[in-house]
Amino acid sequence: MQSNTTVTSPIHLHATAASPHPITGWQVYLDSTNVYTGPATGTIDTYVNASNGSHKLTATAWDSTGAFSSQVSQVTVASAAKFTVQVTAPVVNSTSSSPMHVHATASSSYAITGWQVYLDSANVYTGPATGTIDAYVSASQGSHQLTVSAWDASGGYASQALQANVTAPSSLPTPPSTASVFSSIDQMTTGWNSCATAACAGGTGAGAYWQAFNQGSPSLDGRSMEIYHDGSWGNALWWHSMGAKNSATNLLWDFYVQLDSASVNAAQALEYDAYQFVGGYNYMIGTECNYAAGVWDTWSEAGGYWLHTNIPCKKFAPGTWHHIQWYMTTNHTNHTYTYKTLVLDGVAYNLNQTQSAKYLAWGDNIGAQWQLDVNASGTGFHEWVDKATLTVW
Description:
By secondary structure, the chain is mainly beta.
């Protein structure tokens, strides 16, 4: 504790005495009252209760010769801020799908040292020493009591408990029999375009890149598509158009991807886009697993920027096929498109985020594209794509 500071009660007092003779005792005075008598040690570490306001704190030590020395400190005592936990997601008595999004903030006069989240009576999350947590917890369908607790450096804790309801994960729509199905896009060996320029794929446009078809390993059906970037600072994009489908307003995009260990660590982001061009308007329904931020991003075509979502996206497990399914809709009257639902490895996330299309006067078309964004390591990386299907109606 330093002089002329504002503290909370009890006041933490730490003092050290130095003398050529043994220290025989201590006394501490708060204003004119003796509030502590200490042992024959060179250091004391204690706490002193005090009312709010300005006080004079005097610490005095004696040695074996009867000599003493004192230090006087002027302190102001203020009430400690109430230790609280505020849960902003889920909302009390709200209904959401699993995994349940949990966002909470703790406020205390002391540093936050940890978190725990309980679903009914089970500890389902242990959090770090930060003032805020943003996590997802799996939960079965039905009503649950969610308790979110934080601890601080004083050993105290605060909690908020609430009732939360979990629905079954949203199922993707079943396309009608009249839907147009573009299956095994990864096996279409002709009709592809690619680029690595800054104007097309972002980044600096540097680096070599290539695409290979009919890869037997790794593969789910014996014929995967492999894309590669050499790791030079830049990005590479591959796309395939399937022709105009102007009447379609529903897009269901389904595919699998895999990376090896080196590639997982070399990626900045993995981008997957479906698009529809109608009447000159560009409905670029862009999505990416943003490794740097740890979340899925969506593309604002009208704004020309990426938006973070609350959907987590950790680095994909290497050597494993990951199943990605996106359901999106377009509105050609209002010139908008909506990210409806993402299902990642069987876990559904409802987004329902609407963005505006942009008029670019491009010809009518519909299609899908994959992009590799490299990080600063300069390491080349591969991605394999299999069983890619775009269904529109």
